Amino acid sequence: MNAHLPFAKLDAIWVYLAASPLLGLTVTLVAYLIAMSLYARAKHNPLANPVLIAVAIVVAALKITNTPYRTYFEGAQFVHFLLGPATVALALPLYRQWDKLKRGALPLLGGLVAGSLTAIVSAVGIAKLFGASHQTLASLAPKSVTTPIAMAVAEKVGGIPSLTAVLVISTGVFGAVSARWILDIVRVRETEVRGFAIGVASHGIGTARAFQVSEEMGAFSGLGMGLNGVFTAFVVPVLLPVLLRWL
Amino acid sequence: MLLLLLFAFAVFRPAAAEAIEPTALELLRHLSLFIPAGVGIMVSAQPVRGEAFAVIASLVVSTTLGIAVTALATRALLRRQRGHENAGEGA
Predict the structure, then answer these.
(1) How far apart are CA B87 and CA B32, in angstroms?
(2) B67: pLDDT confidence band, cut at 50, 70 and 90?
(3) ipTM of the complex
(4) CB distance B70–A112 less than 8 Å?
Protein backbone atom coordinates (compact mmCIF):
# COMPACT_ATOMS: atom_id res chain seq x y z
CA MET A 1 0.00 0.00 0.00
CA ASN A 2 2.84 2.39 0.89
CA ALA A 3 3.65 2.78 -2.80
CA HIS A 4 0.19 4.24 -3.40
CA LEU A 5 0.36 6.76 -0.60
CA PRO A 6 1.27 10.18 -1.84
CA PHE A 7 2.61 11.60 1.43
CA ALA A 8 5.73 10.45 3.19
CA LYS A 9 4.12 11.03 6.60
CA LEU A 10 1.17 8.78 5.91
CA ASP A 11 3.65 6.25 4.68
CA ALA A 12 5.49 6.36 7.99
CA ILE A 13 2.26 5.92 9.93
CA TRP A 14 1.35 2.92 7.81
CA VAL A 15 4.74 1.31 8.35
CA TYR A 16 4.30 1.79 12.09
CA LEU A 17 0.75 0.40 12.15
CA ALA A 18 1.57 -2.53 9.90
CA ALA A 19 4.37 -3.57 12.26
CA SER A 20 2.00 -3.73 15.24
CA PRO A 21 0.21 -7.02 15.88
CA LEU A 22 -2.80 -5.03 17.08
CA LEU A 23 -3.62 -4.17 13.48
CA GLY A 24 -4.54 -7.79 12.70
CA LEU A 25 -6.74 -7.85 15.80
CA THR A 26 -8.43 -4.55 14.92
CA VAL A 27 -9.05 -5.59 11.32
CA THR A 28 -10.66 -8.83 12.53
CA LEU A 29 -12.97 -7.10 14.98
CA VAL A 30 -13.94 -4.25 12.65
CA ALA A 31 -14.69 -6.77 9.86
CA TYR A 32 -16.83 -8.70 12.35
CA LEU A 33 -18.78 -5.57 13.36
CA ILE A 34 -19.44 -4.67 9.72
CA ALA A 35 -20.48 -8.26 8.96
CA MET A 36 -22.83 -8.37 11.97
CA SER A 37 -24.54 -5.12 10.99
CA LEU A 38 -25.00 -6.40 7.41
CA TYR A 39 -26.38 -9.64 8.85
CA ALA A 40 -28.88 -7.70 10.97
CA ARG A 41 -29.85 -5.59 7.97
CA ALA A 42 -30.39 -8.78 5.91
CA LYS A 43 -32.87 -9.83 8.66
CA HIS A 44 -30.62 -12.76 9.67
CA ASN A 45 -30.84 -14.44 6.30
CA PRO A 46 -28.43 -17.43 6.49
CA LEU A 47 -26.91 -16.39 3.15
CA ALA A 48 -25.52 -13.28 4.84
CA ASN A 49 -23.47 -15.50 7.18
CA PRO A 50 -21.34 -13.11 9.25
CA VAL A 51 -18.26 -15.38 9.24
CA LEU A 52 -18.32 -15.52 5.45
CA ILE A 53 -18.70 -11.74 5.07
CA ALA A 54 -16.07 -10.92 7.69
CA VAL A 55 -13.57 -13.33 6.11
CA ALA A 56 -14.19 -11.73 2.70
CA ILE A 57 -13.59 -8.26 4.16
CA VAL A 58 -10.33 -9.31 5.85
CA VAL A 59 -9.05 -11.14 2.75
CA ALA A 60 -9.83 -8.08 0.62
CA ALA A 61 -8.03 -5.82 3.13
CA LEU A 62 -4.95 -8.08 3.12
CA LYS A 63 -4.89 -8.24 -0.69
CA ILE A 64 -5.21 -4.46 -1.08
CA THR A 65 -2.47 -3.74 1.46
CA ASN A 66 -0.31 -6.65 0.29
CA THR A 67 -0.06 -7.98 3.83
CA PRO A 68 1.04 -11.62 4.20
CA TYR A 69 -1.25 -13.93 6.21
CA ARG A 70 1.54 -14.59 8.71
CA THR A 71 1.70 -10.89 9.64
CA TYR A 72 -2.07 -10.68 9.97
CA PHE A 73 -2.19 -13.81 12.10
CA GLU A 74 0.25 -12.33 14.64
CA GLY A 75 -2.58 -10.05 15.69
CA ALA A 76 -5.50 -12.30 14.86
CA GLN A 77 -4.14 -15.16 16.96
CA PHE A 78 -5.62 -13.53 20.07
CA VAL A 79 -9.07 -14.06 18.60
CA HIS A 80 -8.13 -17.48 17.26
CA PHE A 81 -6.94 -18.52 20.73
CA LEU A 82 -10.44 -17.98 22.17
CA LEU A 83 -11.73 -20.86 20.03
CA GLY A 84 -10.17 -23.21 22.62
CA PRO A 85 -12.01 -21.76 25.66
CA ALA A 86 -15.22 -21.52 23.56
CA THR A 87 -15.03 -25.25 22.81
CA VAL A 88 -14.57 -26.01 26.50
CA ALA A 89 -17.47 -23.68 27.34
CA LEU A 90 -19.77 -26.02 25.39
CA ALA A 91 -19.77 -28.18 28.52
CA LEU A 92 -22.24 -25.85 30.25
CA PRO A 93 -25.13 -25.92 27.77
CA LEU A 94 -24.56 -29.69 27.53
CA TYR A 95 -24.88 -29.92 31.29
CA ARG A 96 -28.21 -28.03 31.11
CA GLN A 97 -29.59 -30.52 28.58
CA TRP A 98 -28.11 -33.57 30.28
CA ASP A 99 -31.44 -35.22 31.26
CA LYS A 100 -32.78 -34.99 27.73
CA LEU A 101 -29.49 -36.30 26.37
CA LYS A 102 -29.47 -39.33 28.65
CA ARG A 103 -32.93 -40.35 27.51
CA GLY A 104 -31.98 -40.01 23.87
CA ALA A 105 -28.46 -41.45 24.06
CA LEU A 106 -28.90 -44.48 21.80
CA PRO A 107 -30.84 -42.75 19.00
CA LEU A 108 -28.29 -39.91 19.04
CA LEU A 109 -25.37 -42.34 18.77
CA GLY A 110 -27.13 -44.17 15.94
CA GLY A 111 -27.73 -40.91 14.10
CA LEU A 112 -24.10 -39.92 14.66
CA VAL A 113 -22.71 -43.13 13.16
CA ALA A 114 -25.07 -42.99 10.15
CA GLY A 115 -24.53 -39.29 9.43
CA SER A 116 -20.79 -39.18 10.07
CA LEU A 117 -20.08 -42.24 7.90
CA THR A 118 -22.30 -40.84 5.12
CA ALA A 119 -20.37 -37.56 5.16
CA ILE A 120 -16.92 -39.22 5.14
CA VAL A 121 -17.70 -41.81 2.45
CA SER A 122 -19.52 -39.37 0.15
CA ALA A 123 -16.82 -36.68 0.56
CA VAL A 124 -13.99 -39.07 -0.36
CA GLY A 125 -16.04 -40.86 -3.04
CA ILE A 126 -17.14 -37.73 -4.91
CA ALA A 127 -13.71 -36.09 -4.84
CA LYS A 128 -12.15 -39.34 -6.09
CA LEU A 129 -14.74 -39.50 -8.87
CA PHE A 130 -13.59 -36.08 -10.08
CA GLY A 131 -9.96 -37.10 -9.94
CA ALA A 132 -8.69 -35.50 -6.73
CA SER A 133 -5.21 -36.56 -5.55
CA HIS A 134 -4.58 -38.89 -2.63
CA GLN A 135 -3.39 -35.94 -0.51
CA THR A 136 -6.57 -34.02 -1.18
CA LEU A 137 -8.74 -37.05 -0.37
CA ALA A 138 -6.92 -37.54 2.92
CA SER A 139 -7.38 -33.83 3.69
CA LEU A 140 -11.11 -34.07 2.93
CA ALA A 141 -11.98 -37.13 5.01
CA PRO A 142 -12.02 -35.46 8.46
CA LYS A 143 -13.50 -32.11 7.35
CA SER A 144 -16.77 -32.34 9.28
CA VAL A 145 -15.16 -32.01 12.71
CA THR A 146 -13.60 -29.21 14.70
CA THR A 147 -10.32 -27.79 13.32
CA PRO A 148 -7.74 -29.14 15.83
CA ILE A 149 -9.07 -32.72 15.61
CA ALA A 150 -9.47 -32.55 11.83
CA MET A 151 -5.91 -31.27 11.35
CA ALA A 152 -4.46 -33.97 13.60
CA VAL A 153 -6.39 -36.69 11.73
CA ALA A 154 -5.36 -35.29 8.32
CA GLU A 155 -1.72 -35.33 9.39
CA LYS A 156 -2.05 -38.96 10.47
CA VAL A 157 -3.64 -40.19 7.22
CA GLY A 158 -1.33 -38.34 4.83
CA GLY A 159 -3.34 -35.17 4.16
CA ILE A 160 -2.25 -31.54 4.31
CA PRO A 161 -3.32 -30.10 7.71
CA SER A 162 -3.53 -26.49 6.48
CA LEU A 163 -5.69 -27.57 3.54
CA THR A 164 -7.88 -29.49 5.99
CA ALA A 165 -8.28 -26.33 8.08
CA VAL A 166 -9.62 -24.53 5.01
CA LEU A 167 -11.95 -27.42 4.14
CA VAL A 168 -13.21 -27.54 7.75
CA ILE A 169 -14.09 -23.85 7.73
CA SER A 170 -15.73 -24.09 4.28
CA THR A 171 -17.78 -27.09 5.43
CA GLY A 172 -18.84 -25.21 8.57
CA VAL A 173 -19.90 -22.12 6.65
CA PHE A 174 -21.76 -24.18 4.04
CA GLY A 175 -23.52 -26.20 6.76
CA ALA A 176 -24.44 -23.09 8.76
CA VAL A 177 -25.84 -21.38 5.66
CA SER A 178 -27.75 -24.33 4.18
CA ALA A 179 -28.81 -26.41 7.21
CA ARG A 180 -32.13 -24.61 7.60
CA TRP A 181 -33.18 -25.43 4.04
CA ILE A 182 -31.86 -28.98 4.06
CA LEU A 183 -33.70 -29.76 7.29
CA ASP A 184 -36.90 -28.15 5.99
CA ILE A 185 -36.70 -30.22 2.81
CA VAL A 186 -36.39 -33.50 4.75
CA ARG A 187 -39.15 -32.17 7.06
CA VAL A 188 -37.32 -32.56 10.35
CA ARG A 189 -38.82 -29.98 12.73
CA GLU A 190 -37.70 -31.18 16.18
CA THR A 191 -35.29 -28.63 17.65
CA GLU A 192 -33.00 -31.19 19.26
CA VAL A 193 -32.72 -33.31 16.10
CA ARG A 194 -32.04 -30.25 13.94
CA GLY A 195 -29.35 -29.05 16.34
CA PHE A 196 -27.71 -32.45 16.56
CA ALA A 197 -27.57 -32.87 12.76
CA ILE A 198 -26.02 -29.40 12.33
CA GLY A 199 -23.32 -30.18 14.90
CA VAL A 200 -22.44 -33.59 13.44
CA ALA A 201 -22.06 -32.22 9.89
CA SER A 202 -20.70 -28.72 10.44
CA HIS A 203 -18.95 -28.57 13.87
CA GLY A 204 -18.35 -25.21 15.59
CA ILE A 205 -19.53 -22.84 12.88
CA GLY A 206 -22.81 -24.73 12.59
CA THR A 207 -23.03 -24.79 16.38
CA ALA A 208 -22.51 -21.03 16.64
CA ARG A 209 -25.34 -20.63 14.14
CA ALA A 210 -27.53 -23.05 16.14
CA PHE A 211 -26.93 -21.01 19.31
CA GLN A 212 -28.31 -17.98 17.51
CA VAL A 213 -31.56 -19.88 16.95
CA SER A 214 -31.89 -21.15 20.53
CA GLU A 215 -29.82 -22.34 23.45
CA GLU A 216 -31.40 -25.79 23.21
CA MET A 217 -30.52 -26.18 19.53
CA GLY A 218 -26.99 -24.99 20.29
CA ALA A 219 -26.57 -27.51 23.10
CA PHE A 220 -27.55 -30.41 20.86
CA SER A 221 -25.38 -29.09 18.08
CA GLY A 222 -22.45 -28.88 20.50
CA LEU A 223 -23.11 -32.47 21.50
CA GLY A 224 -23.16 -33.62 17.86
CA MET A 225 -19.94 -31.75 17.20
CA GLY A 226 -18.19 -33.23 20.26
CA LEU A 227 -19.32 -36.81 19.56
CA ASN A 228 -18.39 -36.61 15.89
CA GLY A 229 -14.95 -35.25 16.81
CA VAL A 230 -14.22 -38.36 18.85
CA PHE A 231 -15.88 -40.73 16.35
CA THR A 232 -14.02 -39.26 13.35
CA ALA A 233 -10.66 -39.36 15.12
CA PHE A 234 -11.08 -43.12 15.58
CA VAL A 235 -12.82 -44.04 12.36
CA VAL A 236 -11.05 -42.09 9.60
CA PRO A 237 -7.58 -43.66 10.07
CA VAL A 238 -9.20 -47.12 9.79
CA LEU A 239 -11.78 -46.35 7.13
CA LEU A 240 -9.77 -44.23 4.69
CA PRO A 241 -7.30 -46.93 3.51
CA VAL A 242 -10.26 -49.28 2.93
CA LEU A 243 -12.14 -46.61 0.98
CA LEU A 244 -9.12 -45.80 -1.16
CA ARG A 245 -8.69 -49.47 -2.07
CA TRP A 246 -12.35 -49.91 -2.98
CA LEU A 247 -12.88 -46.75 -4.99
CA MET B 1 -10.86 -33.52 27.12
CA LEU B 2 -11.14 -30.19 28.94
CA LEU B 3 -14.78 -30.09 27.89
CA LEU B 4 -15.39 -33.34 29.80
CA LEU B 5 -13.52 -31.98 32.81
CA LEU B 6 -15.68 -28.85 32.94
CA PHE B 7 -18.76 -31.01 32.44
CA ALA B 8 -17.84 -33.24 35.40
CA PHE B 9 -17.14 -30.13 37.46
CA ALA B 10 -20.62 -28.77 36.64
CA VAL B 11 -22.23 -32.06 37.68
CA PHE B 12 -20.46 -32.06 41.05
CA ARG B 13 -20.70 -28.32 41.71
CA PRO B 14 -23.93 -26.96 40.19
CA ALA B 15 -23.38 -23.64 41.97
CA ALA B 16 -20.07 -23.09 40.18
CA ALA B 17 -21.75 -23.92 36.87
CA GLU B 18 -24.33 -21.19 37.52
CA ALA B 19 -21.52 -18.71 38.09
CA ILE B 20 -19.60 -19.50 34.89
CA GLU B 21 -22.61 -19.92 32.64
CA PRO B 22 -23.22 -16.30 31.56
CA THR B 23 -19.57 -15.91 30.52
CA ALA B 24 -19.57 -19.24 28.72
CA LEU B 25 -22.73 -18.48 26.76
CA GLU B 26 -21.42 -15.04 25.81
CA LEU B 27 -18.27 -16.66 24.43
CA LEU B 28 -20.30 -19.20 22.45
CA ARG B 29 -22.36 -16.53 20.73
CA HIS B 30 -19.32 -14.92 19.15
CA LEU B 31 -18.75 -16.01 15.61
CA SER B 32 -15.77 -13.70 15.25
CA LEU B 33 -13.60 -16.50 16.64
CA PHE B 34 -13.63 -18.28 13.29
CA ILE B 35 -12.43 -15.37 11.20
CA PRO B 36 -8.63 -15.86 11.43
CA ALA B 37 -8.88 -19.52 10.38
CA GLY B 38 -11.27 -18.57 7.59
CA VAL B 39 -8.82 -16.03 6.25
CA GLY B 40 -6.34 -18.90 6.01
CA ILE B 41 -8.24 -19.88 2.84
CA MET B 42 -6.20 -17.19 1.11
CA VAL B 43 -2.91 -18.92 1.85
CA SER B 44 -4.01 -22.53 1.36
CA ALA B 45 -6.23 -22.21 -1.70
CA GLN B 46 -3.15 -22.68 -3.91
CA PRO B 47 -2.65 -26.49 -3.82
CA VAL B 48 -6.31 -27.26 -4.66
CA ARG B 49 -6.60 -24.89 -7.58
CA GLY B 50 -6.60 -27.68 -10.19
CA GLU B 51 -8.97 -29.76 -8.07
CA ALA B 52 -11.30 -26.94 -7.08
CA PHE B 53 -14.35 -28.48 -8.72
CA ALA B 54 -13.80 -31.92 -7.16
CA VAL B 55 -13.33 -30.37 -3.72
CA ILE B 56 -16.33 -28.02 -3.91
CA ALA B 57 -18.65 -30.75 -5.23
CA SER B 58 -17.42 -33.09 -2.51
CA LEU B 59 -17.94 -30.51 0.26
CA VAL B 60 -21.41 -29.46 -0.86
CA VAL B 61 -22.82 -32.94 -1.47
CA SER B 62 -21.25 -34.64 1.56
CA THR B 63 -22.29 -31.88 3.98
CA THR B 64 -25.86 -31.87 2.63
CA LEU B 65 -26.07 -35.68 2.91
CA GLY B 66 -24.43 -35.58 6.35
CA ILE B 67 -27.03 -33.16 7.73
CA ALA B 68 -29.99 -34.96 6.13
CA VAL B 69 -28.91 -38.50 7.09
CA THR B 70 -28.04 -37.54 10.67
CA ALA B 71 -31.39 -35.81 11.13
CA LEU B 72 -33.48 -38.58 9.57
CA ALA B 73 -31.66 -41.43 11.32
CA THR B 74 -31.75 -39.70 14.71
CA ARG B 75 -35.44 -38.92 14.39
CA ALA B 76 -36.34 -42.42 13.24
CA LEU B 77 -34.45 -43.95 16.19
CA LEU B 78 -35.97 -41.46 18.66
CA ARG B 79 -39.48 -42.30 17.45
CA ARG B 80 -38.80 -46.01 17.69
CA GLN B 81 -37.55 -45.59 21.25
CA ARG B 82 -40.60 -43.52 22.19
CA GLY B 83 -42.85 -46.13 20.57
CA HIS B 84 -41.28 -48.84 22.73
CA GLU B 85 -41.68 -46.77 25.89
CA ASN B 86 -45.34 -46.09 25.15
CA ALA B 87 -45.95 -49.77 24.38
CA GLY B 88 -44.29 -50.67 27.68
CA GLU B 89 -46.55 -48.27 29.58
CA GLY B 90 -49.63 -49.59 27.82
CA ALA B 91 -48.93 -53.21 28.73
Answers:
(1) 48
(2) very high
(3) 0.72
(4) yes
